[in-house]
User: Which sequence fits this backbone?
């Protein structure tokens, strides 16, 4: 299947890959050493039980270790956040037709004048429980992911003049919540962007509405043939257009929407969320640029192609030019991109490396299959995504996007016409 990178990939305890970290104790015990920039010292051992599980999955937890946390943003501004409950009464839900309106939850992040009093919650305890259960996990507290420390403050006062802030829309991977892109969103907001991450209802394992309803993943039970992936991408494009309507229309649903510069809007997504960026750009001219992060594509571009800037950012195991399957989907897309474009691969990355899940897996002590630390992979993702948006929404040239960088030797530039990356 061309969308294999959207399947839940297998993850194993780090000690299973690094047996020298095993220690003898009652049952199977792992001594976890934190890795990557900014991660603390070695954690105490903890007991592990249960079978292998699907990513993003975390099992085991150091009893006295600090709560998991997201790396601090790199921009100069504090970050505020809020959430919106939106209802599109013009269409029924594509997955549950009995729902006569398409309901969405959206998180907004933005530069703030000052830190607020309350840090935003990463996800609810119930969402954490269902996400961990989806991975087959029983060996850590069910609310572990609800305790992830974020860097944004709920409803902090926004900074910026009217029509001064570019808007970036984010779409997560299939079965994953919008919260998995929090660290990227916080970073962009600290650099002066408004960021809107969309939860696509019934396409993730747990989504909470203000009235307490929790919807689960209807699409997870479907056989994933190309037609389903195409429907996912098309449906997400429609979700994004509706969100733009609600943020930039005559009666915006966010009271600070006047800060948004409606001439500078773009989109990025991970996995099927990244593939959906192409469908969204094809359907909505308000989107001026887009990024597909590690997502195979079923969308067929218009015959004329797309002339707006687009970045393909992924991992070599899946997207090295010349390989069948997912890489072939990118080559098809590449041929239809007629504007500024790049095809970049991050050596050592796994599918989750481009999200918060790589960082959290390291902190909790599990291997997501990557050969680079979650913190390093996130730093690379943040830097290249921000460079792309700075260049194409702010018209600030970014040499980082022109050639390989000694600061980021993991990143290779591909020339698909020659089937090479360097």
Assistant:
């Amino acid at each position: 299947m061309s969308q294999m990178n959207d399947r839940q990939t297998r993850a194993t305890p780090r000690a299973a890959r690094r047996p020298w970290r095993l220690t003898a104790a009652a049952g199977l015990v792992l001594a976890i050493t934190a890795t990557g920039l900014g991660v603390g010292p070695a954690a105490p051992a903890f007991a592990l039980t249960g079978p292998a599980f699907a990513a993003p999955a975390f099992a085991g937890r150091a009893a006295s270790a600090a709560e998991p946390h997201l790396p601090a943003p790199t921009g100069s501004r504090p970050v505020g956040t809020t959430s919106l409950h939106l209802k599109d009464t013009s269409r029924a839900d594509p997955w549950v037709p009995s729902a006569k309106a398409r309901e969405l939850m959206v998180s907004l992040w933005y530069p703030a004048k000052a830190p607020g009093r309350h840090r935003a919650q990463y996800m609810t305890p119930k969402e954490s429980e269902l996400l961990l259960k989806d991975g087959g996990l029983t060996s850590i507290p069910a609310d572990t992911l609800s305790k992830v420390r974020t860097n944004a403050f709920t409803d902090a006062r926004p900074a910026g003049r009217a029509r001064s802030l570019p808007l970036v829309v984010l779409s997560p991977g299939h079965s994953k919540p919008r919260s998995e892109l929090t660290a990227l969103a916080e970073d962009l907001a600290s650099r002066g962007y408004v960021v809107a991450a969309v939860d696509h209802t019934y396409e993730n394992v747990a989504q909470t509405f203000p009235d307490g309803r929790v919807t689960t993943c209807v699409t997870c039970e479907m056989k994933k043939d190309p037609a389903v992936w195409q429907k996912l991408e098309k449906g997400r494009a429609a979700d994004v257009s509706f969100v733009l309507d609600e943020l930039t229309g005559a009666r915006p649903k966010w009271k600070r929407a006047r800060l948004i510069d409606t001439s500078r809007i773009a989109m990025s997504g991970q996995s099927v969320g990244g593939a959906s960026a192409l469908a969204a750009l094809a359907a909505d001219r308000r989107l001026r640029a887009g990024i597909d992060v590690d997502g195979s594509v079923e969308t067929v571009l218009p015959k004329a192609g797309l002339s707006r800037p687009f970045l393909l950012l992924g991992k070599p195991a899946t997207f090295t030019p010349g390989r069948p399957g997912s890489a072939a989907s990118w080559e098809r897309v590449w041929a239809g991109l007629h504007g500024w474009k790049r095809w970049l691969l991050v050596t050592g990355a796994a599918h989750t490396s481009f999200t918060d899940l790589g960082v959290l897996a390291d902190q909790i002590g599990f291997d997501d299959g990557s050969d680079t630390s979650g913190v390093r992979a996130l730093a690379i993702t943040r830097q290249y995504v921000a460079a792309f948006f700075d260049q194409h929404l702010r018209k600030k040239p970014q040499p980082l996007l022109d050639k390989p960088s000694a600061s980021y030797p993991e990143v290779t530039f591909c020339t698909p016409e020659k089937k090479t990356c360097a």
User: Anything to note?
Assistant: The longest strand covers residues 260-270. The longest helix spans residues 226-248. The chain has nine helices and 20 strands.
